[in-house]
Amino acid sequence: MAFIQTDTFTLRGYECDAFGRMSIPALMNLMQESANRNAVAYGIGIADLVSRGFGWMLMRFNLRMHEYPRYGQTVQLQTYPTLVEKYFIHRDFRLLADDGTLLGEATSTWLVFSIEKRAMVPMPDFIRSLSVPAGIDPQPKLPAKPAFQTTPWQPTDEKLVTVGWFSIDQNHHVNNVAYVQWLLEAMDNETLQTREIAEIDLVYRTESHWNDQLRVQSALEAPDTFLHRIEQQESGKDVLLARSRWR
Amino acid sequence: MAFIQTDTFTLRGYECDAFGRMSIPALMNLMQESANRNAVAYGIGIADLVSRGFGWMLMRFNLRMHEYPRYGQTVQLQTYPTLVEKYFIHRDFRLLADDGTLLGEATSTWLVFSIEKRAMVPMPDFIRSLSVPAGIDPQPKLPAKPAFQTTPWQPTDEKLVTVGWFSIDQNHHVNNVAYVQWLLEAMDNETLQTREIAEIDLVYRTESHWNDQLRVQSALEAPDTFLHRIEQQESGKDVLLARSRWR
Fold first, then answer.
1. Which of A15, A39, A129, A198 lies at a CB distance of 3.0 to 4.6 Å from A26, suitable for a disulfide?
2. Can you list the domains of chain B with their CATH numbers?
């Protein structure tokens, strides 16, 4: 069986930013929710994995926004797996207006880890054997190591964040979306007030936990792009690397 | 015309805390959303007020949780005005499970301010004249100045918070719910890990704005109650006073 998950959401006030546009963290939260529901339909939900000693880890995420929906608007979110490889599974997302206009799209790469070994493992057979939906038009596979991960750069801005209670999930790991909120809230005032995200590309590196201190760093890369890094203050380990493009 | 707003919500993963219980900020966000929708039905929504030079301000909010819904559960939220006075309007909320069990209830007091004067004004006629629904059983009116507001106390814990971009609404004021998240995230680890909120009582005092620095203070009042204060670091003004009861 193959499943395309389709969810309809009407935007709530607190899901929109100060300009009434859907906020990126709110959108990513809905994408995560739809992905969970689709995984459950496939029998590969979080609970299905835990019962076999495994867990999901998001490794890459790329979101492009074409047009922002606004407060009260009804949108449709579609998500489905596009490709299963030995170590990775790829998942696409499409955000549509009620007239079918493509408002945004995202693609993501996930891996499976063994809870006991705390290490990445090849896709277990019950995941490896799943069928992706017919008739889909998958987005290009994301590079596992994009240039912004491998080319060193110096931050020009840094803010400290402490991981709070409402940013952790039931595994006591930080929710993937919380990092994006911290990264965006660390941006300079003028960018937040005058521009909007056209694209954001994320590399998740290490987990962090409740009460961890994180350094949220950024630097201007080009007139319309920024580089971002979130690292654990104590260990210096990279938690997230990112590149954002604004318009 | 009189309106009872009834919304049905299925709890999403990110609306639940590390124990899978609906989080208090998520619940308060939904309550605020339902209150907005009910106000729009009555012709007293934010936009209706702005077009006449007015704005809503939340002054008091009291929430009691009897039982926490969990991830995936469908809940019903009801809200309606219960009483309109010269200066205040009162609004109740009821959170129900799908079998009708009362999971939580809240009551709130709102005032109207003049945008031009930046000051409280008597309820304009178009609000004063509204009809509350028939057959409701209003919760007791909240005291305008509860004891925890008038009795001085010394904080034993303090954390600093900077108001981030995603905590402000379209008026560039901090969302009422953001304060509650900061107040709860400033609690000690043991309380967050071993207890749950039975009741929280809030007094909103002053607005705060994007990039403001806030001091989030607390002290144990009794074995199961805490006092909380959020003040502007620069002016020392009280933004929020609160009392929470845990079990």
1. A15
2. 5-128 (3.10.129.10), 147-246 (3.10.129.10)
